[in-house]
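pinning this so it doesn't scroll away 📌
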Amino acid sequence: MFGTLSEETEVMVPASKAWALYGTLELAKLVTGKVVEAVEVVEGDGGDGSGSSCLVKLTLEYDVKEEFAANASLVTNRNLLGIMSVANEHLLKSN
């Protein structure tokens, strides 16, 4: 059973500044040990946006073996929310 969970939040910093955190291993350094055990960057090349704020969307993809499909309800977006919270706080403090 394949599924996804996504969260989106507005960050009150320019997209280029948000990407400097989210698009690099700096995000992993920031949240490792606080919210998650490890972060793996799968894809993304970034690109500068414009304006004084931007939207950040994180997606969690999961695949549960059919024999464990009843456990799919245990998948949570808690870590995504934690990552966004820690990252947004960091971005606002360093603005």
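📌 and the second one:
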Amino acid sequence: MSVELNHTIIHSRDNRDSAEFLADILGLEVGAEWGPFVPVTTANGVTLDFATAPAGTIALQHYAFLVSEAEFDKAYARIQELGATYYADPHQERPGEINHNDGGRGVYFMDPAGHAMEIITRPYGGWKS
């Protein structure tokens, strides 16, 4: 068997709120809550298990999602509809812009817990998916 990422836990202030926020933007489904987790599963089978963390204990992370051009258009439109602040860069120096790195498009936005979320249409290095 080859090694694959199966799931990861994303700490949040409110597990359902964070799961629904990301699922809504990416056009994914929120799974049934089990234990302390609210899951969102990506197309390649990786499950993001959102778990509510005690106040002040969230270590902010970065999560990047590879999407098609059509999925980018939908997600970007949803980010704008929600009035979420977005950036072309991870340092948040180019607000209200997207980037065109590696011949694709990309954008960064924050989830309700403050994690940096990124959607890109080309992997870093310009490899075709």
